[in-house]
Amino acid sequence: MGNFKGHALPGSFFLLFGLWWSVKYPLKYVCRKNKNACYLGSRAGFQRLEFIEGIVKAVFALIGMIAEQFVPDGPHLKLYNYEAKHWDHLMNWQHATMYLFYGISGLVDIVAHGTNALPVALDRMMLSLAVFIEGFLFYYHIHGRAMLDFHVHQLLLVAIFGAAFCIFLEVFFRGSIVLEMLRTSLCILQGSWLWQIGFVLYPPNGRLEWNQMDHNNMMFLTMCYCWHYAFAFLILAMNYTIVSWLVRSKIKQAQSVEMGLLKTAERDQESEDEI
């Protein structure tokens, strides 16, 4: 992850999941209020989505682990260099460990929603643990860095530990749209901020590098972090509005069809009575 692509890859994973959740949870909430509005409003429908989500999460985690190990300058599964007598590419190993726990979370989702072998609440518990492990690794990952490098990763920790705590609450308050949307916003924030870190620390295409010791850069990036979170809420608001409008439109169409069928049935009954 010590380059631009290394931050863009996990950032893309978090953004994809955040964008998916920004559609899934409003749909689940609106369908729960209007159970006859859509097929996915059934418990079985959303359980299938959770199962598929677990598969995607496990696949993404596997891709991340392989990328961290087998990039040209990666460790290639070698943890210790016996010739030079030092640990080998520990940064890559830490990132692979992060992906490992997300992979375990995906497997738990598959088992919990595909069978009756595990309690359903264990999926949130394992996801909370995976996010916490990510923050735990990052906390000891940034010691000794330059001031700006340390600061942007410190801001990332706010989103990570906030999401871990939010998901932990979901273990006890499952189905809370407030917690689900908060988790989604923090996931989008984490994804977009990883991209921002990539642009700041490893500017692509030979762009001008940021001054790592300039306090004004820290002030700007702190403000920029807040803009990223505002952008996350904007995405949530837009997707919630679109999903609500689509479901309500479907309800109106269904009601119009029902009224048309009812009127046709009444006319047929009147014709039979006249005969």
* Radius of gyration (Å): 24 Å
For the report, how would you describe the main beta sheet? 2 strands, antiparallel
Relative helix content? over 70%
Strand content: under 5%
**Mean of the pLDDT scores?**
88
Strand and helix order: HHEEHHHHH
Unreliable spans are none
Number of helical regions: 7
Multimeric organization: single chain
Give the beta-strand count.
2
Major sheet: arrangement of strands: 1-2
What is the structural class? mainly alpha
Quote the distance from N terminus to C terminus: 81 Å
Task: Categorize the overall geometry.
Answer: globular
Short description:
This protein is mainly α and 275 residues long. It has seven helices and two strands, in the order ααββααααα. Helices cover 77% and strands 1% of the residues.
Please write out the topology.
Blueprint (H helix, E strand, L loop, with lengths): L3 H30 L9 H28 L9 E2 L4 E2 L2 H25 L7 H18 L7 H26 L4 H25 L13 H60 L1
Antiparallel strand pairs: 1-2
Describe this structure in words.
The protein has seven helices and two strands; from the N terminus they run ααββααααα. 31% of the residues are buried. It starts with a helix and ends with a helix. Helix 1 (4-33) packs antiparallel against helix 6. With 275 residues, it is an all-alpha fold. A two-stranded antiparallel ribbon has the order 1-2. Helices cover 77% and strands 1% of the residues. The model has no long low-confidence stretch (mean pLDDT 88).
List its salient traits.
275 residues; two-stranded antiparallel sheet; mainly alpha; globular
